Amino acid sequence: MPQPDTYMELFYAYLAVWVIIAVFLMSLSSKVTRLEKRSSKFTSND
Amino acid sequence: MDNPQSRSTFIDSALLALSTILIALSLYAVFVYVPNELTMGAIQRIFYFHVGSATACYISFGIVFFAAILFLSSRKEVYDMVLLSAGEVGFMFCSIVLISGILWGHSAWNTWFRFEPRLVSFLVLWLIFLGFVLLRKFGEPGKVAAHSAILGILGAITVPIVVYSIKLLPAAAQLHPQVLENRGLRDPKFTQALILTTLSLIIFQFFLIRLRFRVERLNRGDH
Which of B100, B104, B215 is opposite residue A32, by nearest beta carbon? Predict the structure, then answer.
């Protein structure tokens, strides 16, 4: 079995860490923005 | 600052700023400050975010455990919101541990996965919280809170099994190292980088839980 490239594995591991964090954070931020916009619209209509 | 909403925004901003600074320092420590480990070489640098994420994930599941018990005993909606927020954030950190562990394992031991106590018990923990996330998404609206509280307790109980699973077999029979148990971090730089990374991820985890809680509160129309 060929030996894995250590530096590429290290790069992929950190890439995976940051992709997971970025996707989660972006999804939460966009939800907060959308929901706050919606709730301020309701408040101004009241 | 008397307004609870502006106080909450201030706490969120402070947690985000602090975790960003500490994560930047952690990355400097991991890639510049810490020397190469003698046996594994550069790949050992995954260790700091791997262990830090595992600690953050265990703390999240601890919060899930207490919030689930409080929800089941009082049926207050706020505990359900805490349970949901901590469960999802814990699952995210759990996924980071699993993926970084698989890549580290492939590089250090030349195998992606092996059926041994620590790896299997952690996979079971990940699957339980995958079930938790799917249940929250597709569960029956009236019952989902109680069902996910029970599943959350079951998942949180798995955490001590994961932690102590490493003692089930002798060290020579397992791939997963017993670094902390064997006081394997002899160079103080390793310990300093580990403490810094773990602290930064724990603070970041609290920021994420608060953010997820805010989403849920807005979603339920409770401001």
Answer: B215
